[in-house]
Amino acid sequence: MKKIVLSATLLLCASAAFAAADGTVLIKGGTFVMGSPESENWREADELQHTVTVSDFYIGTHEVTQAEYQAVTGKNPSENRGAKLPVETVSWFDAVRFCNAKSKQDGLTPAYTIDGENVTWNRSANGWRLPTEAEWEYAARAGTKGPFSIIPSPSPKQANYYGHYPYNIEQNYFSTGNLDVKPGTYRGHTVPVGSFKPNPWGLYDVHGNVSEWCWDRYGTYPREAQTDPAGPETGATRICRGGGWNDFAKHLRSAYRSSQTPDDAFASRGFRLVRNAK
Length: 278
Fold this sequence. Notes:
- With 278 residues, the chain is of the alpha/beta class.
- It has a single domain, classed as paralog of FGE (formylglycine-generating enzyme) (Alpha-Beta Complex).
- The chain has four helices and 13 strands.
- The two termini are 15 Å apart.
């Protein structure tokens, strides 16, 4: 299928989505600073800035929908029902099983070997998989360096989150006139994927709607530069990124990291697909 190649130069100037026939965009690899500066408001201690290089990869323009999930698995575990809504209430294990099933359906080599709760990743496979934490942040930032790819921060009209709590309201709760973005609607549920404008690289809902499972186990960032990191070899929890419909704006930041045990499933968590570019 034809895919559209999006260069960083082009995308930083673009304002529209560039979706390919299979719902992916090609993200050209590069080097970026992962994590957040100490000056960033509501920064967490685990967001140590470090230099990371990622290779080219394809990533879904939107979170996997309920229609897409049901077409592959025959099931829909979501609490908020709707074909165009993101699938949610899926565990990390559900997500990797979906990746393998869709790979087989599409004639691709599955990326994962699944033996009970032991999951290994064949990094050379061309099948669908979850993004690494580094790939997710690189694509979500889309060349931006601030807290969000939406400048200065997302309003409830630009993302689906707990809109009563926009960025920095905690220190301005009784002086909202000081805020760049004022409090707004809290929807209390997911909305159809693509309801808002995409980020500069054509990705929808990287801030809000549902948080997204990544491949990596949770761990401390290294200080040294890395190339195509995939997280620590051991750990009890897996990374989730992007924040969901019930999160405060500070938890939608590009650098914000959350994690859950891989068998947990919540109505505010889904996932997005990735595939190797080579």
